[in-house]
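Internal ticket #5521
Category: modeling
Description: The requester needs a full-assembly model to guide mutagenesis choices. All entity lines are attached below as received. Residue total reported by intake: 670.
Assigned to: D.W.
Attached entities:
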Amino acid sequence: MSHRTLFEKIWDAHVVSQAPPADVSSHGVAPAMLYIDLHLVHEVTSPQAFSGLRNRGLSVRRPERTLATLDHSTPTIPGAPPIDEAARAQLAALAKNCDDTGVQLFGLESDRRGIVHVIGPEMGATQPGMTIVCGDSHTSTHGAFGALAFGIGTTEVEHVLATQCLLQKKPKTFEVRLEGELSPGVTAKDVILAVIAEIGVGAGAGHVIEYTGSLIPRLSMDERMTICNMSIEAGARAGLMAPDEVTFAFLKGRERAPSGDAWDAAVARWSALRTDPGATYDRSVAIDVSAVKPMITFGTNPGMGIAIDQPLPASGGDDTTRGQLSRALGYMALSPGQPLLDHPVDCVFIGSCTNGRISDLRAAASILRGRKVAEGVRALVVPGSFGVKRQAEAEGLDQVFLAAGAQWRDPGCSMCLAMNGDKLSPGEYAVSTSNRNFEGRQGPGGRTFLASPLTAAACAVAGKVADPRSFLAEAVS
Amino acid sequence: MSRIESRVVSIVRDDIDTDQIIPARYLRTTEKTGLADGLFAGWRYDGNGDVKPDSVLDSPANQGAKILLSGQNFGCGSSREHAAWALLDWGFVAVIARSFADIFRENAVKNGIVPVALDAGDHARLVAAANADGGLMVTVDVEADNVRLADGTTFAFALDPFAKQCLVSGTDALGYLMARKADIDRFERERES
Ligand code: SF4
């Protein structure tokens, strides 16, 4: 067999059939029919798919390969009701749809509920070599386990519910090689923000990214997930990494992971999931991560990022670039060439499927411990799941956050997309550990600086954009 | 639909994300319809929810238009198919852009919206023509794989063959998958045995 990339191995193992249907053969190649091992479902992108099934009189083909949760429109203030009747109806619709079809739901009452991309790995449902989809673009997160995981639209959700398959055109491969060691205060979030700033928000279109290089084996699964999560912000539907001992150690003993003999067999199978020497990618870039500093975005797409101690770009470049920059800075009420350090901040959001896992909360707590959130700053800490919440509480992190004056919430997407009522007011500035700084993403008129949990916590304490490295230097006892 | 003739509505910016096309606060729905009011809401309405005087989607001349002209990487960000539904609900059945984000392109085709990607030179010429003539009429011909202007100018584009098939003859992708049930059964048997 020829030399294959990790992606190609997973792809090849899931092609049900490639034969063109009779009615399109005259037009050339039909897309492959790809089998889906795990289908994750949430309340926002699924109701129309379930209605479609009902209208056609179809059932869910493999309910046990489907896992549902409520995360986007759910309240995060403990005990609070959904924000409005529409949100309540949307949450109820998924509960009913799951009830009718036999899909397991981690519903409002479940103590294992959480953001879909946090609970899949937490339960061990996300495994190497799988194909994983969800009506959600950050499904790329699961690629951290060496799975081919990508977001789909609601029509495709319906296809997978009905057939466990998707019609997919084979994407190209894009190697992002990350070499070197991270400096103190620099995290996986900074790495991926630096990658996106370097290659651009559209660079990955039509491609699956594989992250390779000496950095990857040194990263924890939480860090790997942060990187793969934001593949979509570089335009790639999927980003993945070869599984290794770190992956296996993470999965071992989790409820949905194999056990006993099946575990040994699985590890043997998973160990072959790496790109063969001599296999080639359609495109490659190499990035020296030892040069990466804490990053922050200043504009209205995730590619508009700078090292936190750098000034904003001066206006320049071609007309399009200049126009886009001036629009973005206009929205953000910032000027070309100005520094971002010391810029006042109204709100700090620590959470999301990018940075809402336990190590993210530990990082934030390491700066907030013994310190106070600055006067006038609203700080929300929103764990990615109830599992993360319980773990944080067992470690006393909740007390650190509360003592600092931050809010300690129930899990959910919360201010990452501001559809549950957690949002910015027009004109407010937030430092956010989420993944998107689009206009109005965190509330109409709201302005978002994306950064790591360390940086976000530093900004919360300073009340303005601050370099986390200065906080690490002066640890509080 | 294989041929669409309409004036173009220009919102020529790069990297228009699906949060701009339809903000999350409009997603608390279980339906595909009724989303036109949310289309580009952040750019259409002022702080009181009133239509801004310069809203292109609300200018009387643009009512009934079917073709949107945009920039590079249109539809990036969230996978929300609501973006396609909102465009459709407003009346758009084709988007001409420099390029499209992957998930949006798929969602568009599944809803009968033609994603027309033009190369840089043609895109720039079309944008210039649209800037020069606010009511520029354009024909998107899916079967002929081109965009035509009244003066005879023609810009070629390429669609994925299966996407083209779906758009031209309304091929039902789910029906196709369902018809291959025996293949799926076999695949599952072989893997799970
Ligand atoms: S946390 Fe944000 S990015 Fe992640 S699934 Fe929720 S809304 Fe999407």
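Resolution: model delivered.
Comment from assignee: The longest strand of chain A covers residues 172-179.
Ticket closed.
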